[in-house]
Amino acid sequence: MSSLNPRAEGPSSPPPSYTAVSGLKTPPPNGRAGLYNGGNSVSPRRVKGEAANQTQCRNIVIYGYCRYQDRGCIFNHDTSNISPSKNPVSPSQSGIGSDMSKRKLNVESASFTPGQSPSFGNAIMASPQQSKLNPKVLEAAVFTPRVNALGLSAATPPMASAPLPQGNLMDPMMQTSGYLQPEIPPFPNLSGTFEGIGMDQTGQMNPYEYNPVAAHGAQVNPYAHQSNPTEVYYGQQSFTQPLQYHLYAPMGPHKSNLLSYQRTVHDLFLKDNLREDLQKKAEATLQTLPNSTLPNVDCYHTLVPLDLHTPKPQGKAAPASPPSTFGYTSWVYKAINSKDGRPYILRRLEGFRLSNEKAIRVVEHWGRVLSASLVTVHDAFTTRAFGDNSIVFVFDYFPLSQTLQEVHFGPNSRYQTRHHGPHQSQTQHANTEHTLWSYIVQITSALKAIHAAGLAARTIQPSKILLTNKNRIRINCCSIFDVLHFESGRTVLDYQQDDYVAFGRLILSIACNNPHAINNGQKSLDFVGRTFTPELKNFLLYLFHGPGNGAVRTIDDLLSMISFQMIQSFDSSLHQNDVLESNLSRELENGRLVRLLFKFGFINERPEFAHDRTWSETGDRYLISLFRDYIFHQVDEAGNPVLDMVHVLQCLNKLDAGSDERCMLVSRDDHNSLIVTYRELKRAIESSFSELSKRG
Ligand SMILES: Nc1ncnc2c1ncn2[C@@H]1O[C@H](COP(=O)(O)OP(=O)(O)OP(=O)(O)O)[C@@H](O)[C@H]1O
């Protein structure tokens, strides 16, 4: 394994204020240079090798008795063995180097009470010669007793004592510090529960009483007296109870059975196809039209036309042209609203004169309709900004969406080459039917919301249904006909019944892959009957003919006919949701790390403070710059840069979590080494950042 060393070049180091060992060249114990992992730990092997009954029970040491003595505790309960050297806070637990463990207690020793113990969490001494405690260590804040892994003390109720993030949570930059390293329980156990927290004689939870029987179960836990939390914390994942904010937690669903060494750094980020899709959509959203002559309309600017087809002119000018959906020349623009900065769709109908003011207010009724399968309409207004009388409808914008007309019947349609018939395989039929049911479920759900609001969609046709994602559709342009034909004299019920027929036509045309399938209705229905399941044909028959005896179609009848497909569709969307959440969780970690990198960038190499003695590269700043080298500027034996992204991710995550793990930082001239915990590094970055904020 190649050892990684920070570059041995650059300026020699100024004297750091952290505990440093000049000339320390001790290789790190785990083979990875610079990473010193828990040098104060008691080796599990040692504990394992000892006969358990020769090991002093900790409850005797701490409390003078062990309530499990007669209930299976396998450790030694002989009190005569207890000498001052069996300090309840063992050196290894307290974070003092191994040389300190040999020292006996004396009058100057910090006194121990179960509620308090001296903290030795600061930079540890790595040099065997250096036997005095770092003055910083003695000044360190008193140790608050470790409570259980949920951060609950014995006296406080669970909700009241949940660990609170440090820092100002309202400050986005400070939010990275919201991830505290949770308190680590003193005696992790195998069961994964918090059985190490015993009950005292009053029946109260006692976080200090160790229950060896519960913790060991039938077998002896070799880590039972393991007192270095970090070793258990990182080495024995299954033993740990606290949340590990610095690790990437793989979230399901997991489809591939890759082994850990087969995974790549890509597994830590969004899936490529999803990223590409989102980036293309972002690009489309931000697209502008250079040298555009399009005007600003009301509060909308930066108009980009989306309707790539030649507008279909109406009236005498072009009598042979097929009429556009609304009977007016229509234009579709993407535009930005200057009030909220968001993109919207403006659909302009050219040459429309509003004869009744009330007509345009119909749009407000559509504000009540909430459906995920509907393109929401926000506003409608008349304008002369285009040099004519136009009416403009404002809709939600869905980047890169296509109409079902384009998807199924357009020149570039992937369905064009497929001719339904005997040559199509069973799988292709099944896929087409799956798509059809997916459309049916979504349109039915939209109709349910629309009809319940006392309205009718009136635009169920291939060119007015948008495909915004795979198999994800939305009914577009609702409300336009309500305004255009405000005084038509027909009732809403009539229009609602028309919706069902239009729905049937849409599904029939897609099933037959022919936009004109309705022109030969019976033949098309026979084809559907032969090709797809009988449920689909029955569904279409209901849409075209209703329940019979002159009764009207109702949305509830429709829903009961497709209940099975609804369940299937619901299940698929739950799966899809899981996949997206899993992808989201990957970005969650990365978002935190970016904010951490921002802080690094703000702090490191500030030229304006170069001669400022209070800021210059000593103390915290020196530590941070060495840590920056440790993360990013490692080189291998041949001096080649090591570009190990996983190392960067691990370091940043541990830093953000303020882990107790230590790392060894080496000055650029190789003359000084520092051993610090990530917790200290985190503190250094936070204090430097807050100092910067005060100066700013
Ligand atoms: N809300 C929207 N979000 C994003 N794109 C949209 C939206 N509405 C329409 N579009 C896009 O604008 C283009 C034109 O849509 P339009 O509804 O005018 O289709 P059309 O076939 O031209 O219909 P018409 O015959 O009514 O003109 C389509 O490619 C469609 O994808």
Helix share of residues? Answer: 25-40%
CATH topology of the domain at 297-561: Transferase(Phosphotransferase), domain 1
Instruction: Supply the helix-strand structural class.
Output: alpha+beta
Query: Radius of gyration, rounded?
Result: 35 Å
Number of extended strands: 15
Q: Spell out the CATH superfamily of the domain at 297-561.
A: Transferase(Phosphotransferase) domain 1
> Could you give a short account of the major beta sheet?
5 strands, antiparallel
Assembly of the depicted chains: single chain
Region (Disordered): 1-51, 79-100
Coiled coil: 564-602
Keywords: ATP-binding, Coiled coil, Cytoplasm, Metal-binding, mRNA processing, Nucleotide-binding, Zinc, Zinc-finger
GO cellular component, one term: PAN complex
Short description:
The chain is an alpha+beta fold and 696 residues long. 33% of the residues lie in helices and 10% in strands.
Describe this structure in words.
With 696 residues, the chain is α+β, with helices and mostly antiparallel strands. The chain is 33% helix and 10% strand. The strands form five sheets. It has a five-stranded antiparallel sheet, with helices on one face. Helix 17 (619-632) packs across helix 19. The radius of gyration is 35 Å and the shape is extended. The structure holds adenosine-5'-triphosphate. Adenosine-5'-triphosphate (ATP) is lined by residues 306-307, 309, 324-325, 330, 332, 345, 375, 395-398, 401-403, 405-406, 463-464, 466, 476. Adenosine-5'-triphosphate binds at residues 306-307, 309, 324-325, 330, 332, 345, 375, 395-398, 401-403, 405-406, 463-464, 466, 476. Residues 564-602 form a coiled coil. Keywords: ATP-binding, Coiled coil, Cytoplasm, Metal-binding, mRNA processing, Nucleotide-binding, Zinc, Zinc-finger. Residues 603-696 are annotated as: Knob domain. It is found in: Cytoplasm.
